Amino acid sequence: MLKIETLITGPFQVCTYIVYDEGTKEATIIDPGDADPRILKIVQEYSLKVKFIFGTHGHPDHLLGVDYLRQFLKAPFILHKADELFFRDPQNFSVFKNWGFPANPRADAVYEDGFEITLGDEVLVVIHTPGHSPGSSCLYAKGSKAVFTGDTLFVQGVGRADLPGGNYLQMLHSIRDKLFLLPDDTIVYPGHDYGPKPTSTIAEEKRFNPFVQELDL
Known about the structure:
This protein is α/β, with parallel strands linked by helices and 217 residues long. The protein has a single domain, classed as Ribonuclease Z/Hydroxyacylglutathione hydrolase-like (Metallo-beta-lactamase, Chain A, 4-Layer Sandwich), CATH 3.60.15. Helix content is 22%, strand content 30%. The protein has helices spanning 37-45, 66-72, 81-86, 90-98, 168-177, 202-208; strands at 2-9, 14-21, 26-30, 49-54, 77-80, 109-111, 116-119, 122-128, 137-141, 146-150, 153-154, 157-158, 187-190, 200-201. Strands 1-2-3-4-5-6 form a six-stranded mixed beta sheet. Strands 7-8-9-10-13-14 form a six-stranded mixed beta sheet. Strand 7 (116-119) and strand 8 (122-128) form a beta hairpin. The protein is globular. The model has no long low-confidence stretch (mean pLDDT 97).
């Protein structure tokens, strides 16, 4: 069973997750939303061996802490191939530049659907869920009954789709046709705490998420 530490980071209140195996101390940091020293404090406190810095998607609010962490950790930053390519185009990134964001950190490696991260005996699997962005992805830990959904699925909400590369209907289908096939008791860990509580379950989202119900589930 994986251990999960949650921090709210950065000006956009990103849910940053430090996920680790208690036995081996192998860890992954998901969506570092700022150069927040609390992340390193947890890594040091538990003597974690960080294998990856994982970006659920290429929007810069989720990546503001990547370069900071790479100064101290040997872990590579990984992002879905589609977002790494899409947001390298200045035209696609221009809206974020106009909002004052720096350029995205370059990925050390890219992943695609089905990519696996092993932490101890647990395997976390990438589920590509495009819609919020072309490369938006979730990270599913079957043994721990957990899925990290980035900005694709929130508690009783979904991500916006009006930014470059966004597609609202595609996002809803990603949720219905991929995430909602996971076991009902899977815990949903979203990229922002926008809902009535910080986490949910797949069963609760099937029943109570008004946006996905538009597809007549």
